[in-house]
């Protein structure tokens, strides 16, 4: 088993292995023994049997397990669900010494995390991520949030989980596109902080998948990167902003598509457009786009770019106006310097909007230096 300890104020372990759900009682005993436990999940995750397996594994050591199953999808990260979940906990008389478990992807993790952060001013929660994206990113680091109609993640808190159990076997039921969404964040880690990891992804014989033998090691590497960043900057004031590479444009694309474009693919779109922007504006001297483009295509992460062509530019910048990364009249963007190295650059929002307008105009006129998946010459 791989273990990464995140040594924040109350340190916690991230456990990564096969077959963890079945042995969840042993891995969670110190946190849930004799307590009431509410498992929150979504319908897909429940339908694959993970909810039943977890419930069965832990019920014997708790004083009772309750379950709460939501439909799947980003729309569930809503204020309505947040209030309903709080009400449910209150109705069941959950106290501050009881525990909530988030079993699912980033949507469930973010909603449960924010609920746990605020119910009775804070109740313990455990993350059991079941998507690659949530395992390597959202379940670690304590950023929790819900969306508002005005934008993504606008209401939230920093609130760390007490443990993270990442059962690699759960990834085997992920659809290919959902697995690939996780690969977008994986590529992000490589681009911003780990050239070796990126090289590992670029040079492999076949693309990473749920059955790859090195998946556990790769998940561990990403969790370590996230841990290091979080330890240095838990509250997102400096280094942690690096993790937002591709996210300024990515969130705007997600929102402008009314969440038809997934988070991972929004981020992939944002990363490649930010990369091209940096080259175009002379902000990076290296010509990385071609290899980056090829890597993203291996995971089919740019197929939605044709959709983005049809979005209104105003819709994209309106979404950004609400982006919390915009402070005062300025925006901090993350630009690649080379593979494995990015830097933060703060500039007036109007200047950034000008850069973006130029990229979007090129995109609409089919003038971007990008090859899309289907266009590739054999
Ligand atoms: N808090 C953070 O630091 C952070 C970081 C990155 C992303 N996020 C958030 O995470 C969310 C995206 O996470 P996500 O991509 O996991 O989305 P998600 O939770 O919507 O999961 C994607 C889909 O996979 C299904 N699914 C989950 N586990 C499965 C399994 N094992 N087998 C089959 N299907 C399964 C879900 O039902 C859903 O349909 C976004 O809301 C994003 O804002 C948060
Ligand atoms: Zn992300």
UniProtKB/TrEMBL annotation:
User: A GO molecular function for this record?
Assistant: metal ion binding
Q: EC number(s) on record? A: 4.2.3.4
Locations listed in the record? Cytoplasm
Top-level class of the enzyme under EC nomenclature: lyase
What are the alphabetically sorted keywords of the record?
Answer: Amino-acid biosynthesis, Aromatic amino acid biosynthesis, Cobalt, Cytoplasm, Lyase, Metal-binding, NAD, Nucleotide-binding, Zinc
Q: Where are the transmembrane segments?
A: none
Q: What is this protein called?
A: 3-dehydroquinate synthase
Query: Taxonomic lineage per UniProt?
Result: Bacteria, Bacillati, Bacillota, Bacilli, Lactobacillales
């Amino acid at each position: 088993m791989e273990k990464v300890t995140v040594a924040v104020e109350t340190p916690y372990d991230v456990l990564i292995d096969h077959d963890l759900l079945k042995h969840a009682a042993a891995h969670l005993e110190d946190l849930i023994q004799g307590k009431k436990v509410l498992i929150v999940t979504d319908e897909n995750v429940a339908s694959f049997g993970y909810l039943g397996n977890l419930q069965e594994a832990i019920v014997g050591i708790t004083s009772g397990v309750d379950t709460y199953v939501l439909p799947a999808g980003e729309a569930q990260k809503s204020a309505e669900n947040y209030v309903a979940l709080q009400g449910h906990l209150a109705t069941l008389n959950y106290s501050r010494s009881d525990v909530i478990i988030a079993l699912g992807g980033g949507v469930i993790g973010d909603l449960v995390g924010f609920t746990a952060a605020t119910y009775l001013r804070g109740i313990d929660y455990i993350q059991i991520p079941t998507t690659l994206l949530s395992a390597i990113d959202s379940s670690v680091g304590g950023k929790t949030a819900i969306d508002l109609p005005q934008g993504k993640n606008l209401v939230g808190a920093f609130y760390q989980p007490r443990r993270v159990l990442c059962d690699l076997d759960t990834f085997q039921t992920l659809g290919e596109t959902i697995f690939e969404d996780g690969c977008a964040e994986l590529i992000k880690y490589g681009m911003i902080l780990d050239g070796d990891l990126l090289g590992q992804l670029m040079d492999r014989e076949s693309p990473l998948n749920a059955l790859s033998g090195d998946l556990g090691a790769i998940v561990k590497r990403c969790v370590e990167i996230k841990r290091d960043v979080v330890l240095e900057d838990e509250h997102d004031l400096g280094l942690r902003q690096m993790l937002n590479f591709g996210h300024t444009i990515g969130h705007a694309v997600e929102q402008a598509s009314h969440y038809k474009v997934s988070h991972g693919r929004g981020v992939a779109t944002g990363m490649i457009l930010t990369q091209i922007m940096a080259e175009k504006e002379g902000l990076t001297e290296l010509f990385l786009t071609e290899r980056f483009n090829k890597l993203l295509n291996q995971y089919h992460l740019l197929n939605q770019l044709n959709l983005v062509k049809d979005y209104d530019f105003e819709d994209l910048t309106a979404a950004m106006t609400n982006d919390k990364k915009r402070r005062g009249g300025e925006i901090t963007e993350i630009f690649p310097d080379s593979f494995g190295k990015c830097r933060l650059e703060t500039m007036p929002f109007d200047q950034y909007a000008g850069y973006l307008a130029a990229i979007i105009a090129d995109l609409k006129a089919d003038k971007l230096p990008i090859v899309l998946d289907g266009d590739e010459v054999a």
